[in-house]
Amino acid sequence: MENFGYSMLCYWSAYFVVTGIGILHTIFNITVLHMKSMKESDGMGEGYDKTKPWHPLYNLVIFPVFAYLYFNGLETVTLTNVIATSLFWGTSTIVFDVIGWVLIKHPWSLTFRQFYIDYQPWITLIYVTIYASPFIAYHFL
Fold this sequence. Notes:
Blueprint: H1 4-31, H2 46-49, H3 55-72, H4 79-103, H5 112-118, H6 122-139
Helix pairs in contact: 1-3, 3-6, 4-6
C-alpha cells in the first residue's frame, strides 16, 4: 500500500465522520423526534435502534469519498493498491469495532451478542461496504 500514513488519515477521517453522523442522528431522534433514549428503554434505546438501517448508507456515501481522496493523492493507482486498501480498511474496522464498541466499556458499548447478532444485517452490510469502498472509488478515477 502506497503512502500508508495518508491512507490511515483518510481511513480514520471516514471512520470518525461516519461515527459522528450516527451519533448526531441518534441525538436528533431523541431530542427532536422524542424517541426513547437508552435511559428510558432497554438496550441502546429507540433513538439509536431507528438509526441502524441508515448505518450502511452512511458508510456507502462516506468511505468511497475518502478512498477517492486517498487514491487521488497517489501518483499511480494500481489494482494491487486498491485490493490492499480494501483488505486493510475492512479488517481494521472489524478489529477496531470489537475493541472500541465491545471490549472497552463505556456508556454506548455493546455486548458481543448485541454487536454481532442483534445488529444484523446492518453490521455485515457496513463491513461489506467498507471492503467495497476502495473499488467504488477506483471506478470513479
